[in-house]
């Protein structure tokens, strides 16, 4: 019985390997989600209560805001949840200076007045898309918005604010960690806390998305990242996507994007 099971296992592996080598040389390991045009990458429609209240959903462009503010400002200080349409935003709260109203007060940015309604409640996810051209001087990225936002900050090309109220400098944590891949032949992920800490607060990731103790997060794999879990909460939606960016996370990876002997 054991020999029979071993024989069947070998046959299965040979079939699997044969299928892999029969694949075209340029095929990719994963079926990556298609990306929108650069000017639409990171754009969202907020519609928790708009449509049901008889108004058009709010369009929001991440790229037009991250020039001036880090992710921490909205997703920590102003308390926007990371998941779309789960924050209890209301027009009344905005008018009293909460959520969008922290900046859209008629002073820092256009206010919540009747003549400005269509600037947000337009239901058009491409609203203002032409303004991306004004950022053409920033360092280039290969996908996403076509901008390398980290380099833009490091070079001083953009200087986004990290707080709105009191100056609370984020914790500086510079440790880099290696996250071993569950796939043979795929080099570890090198995760730099320092880079992420310039944009995010620790609580944006810990403990809801990642366990605070190293190796305490279960099911951390590309399969789930591409479903917008774990790293995919940001990477693939707002931060640079996996498409054409293998070596940004797996710096020692050879033949990025090419199939060797693994099928999926």
Brief characterization of the structure:
Helices cover 25% and strands 6% of the residues.
Describe this structure in words.
The protein is mainly alpha-helical and 264 residues long. The protein folds into two domains: 1-30 and 170-264, Cytochrome C3; 43-154, Alpha-Beta Complex (Cytochrome C3). Helices cover 25% and strands 6% of the residues. The protein contains ten helices and four strands. The chain has helices spanning 2-22, 62-66, 71-77, 91-95, 117-120, 149-154, 193-197, 202-205, 222-225, 246-249, and strands at 43-46, 58-61, 176-179, 189-192. The strands form two sheets. The protein has a two-stranded antiparallel sheet. The chain is globular, with a radius of gyration of 22 Å. Mean pLDDT is 87; it is low at 5-28 and 260-264.
Index terms:
264 residues, mainly alpha, Cytochrome C3, two-stranded antiparallel sheet, 10 helices, disordered C terminus
Helix and strand arrangement:
Layout: H1 2-22, E1 43-46, E2 58-61, H2 62-66, H3 71-77, H4 91-95, H5 117-120, H6 149-154, E3 176-179, E4 189-192, H7 193-197, H8 202-205, H9 222-225, H10 246-249
Antiparallel strand pairs: 1-2, 3-4
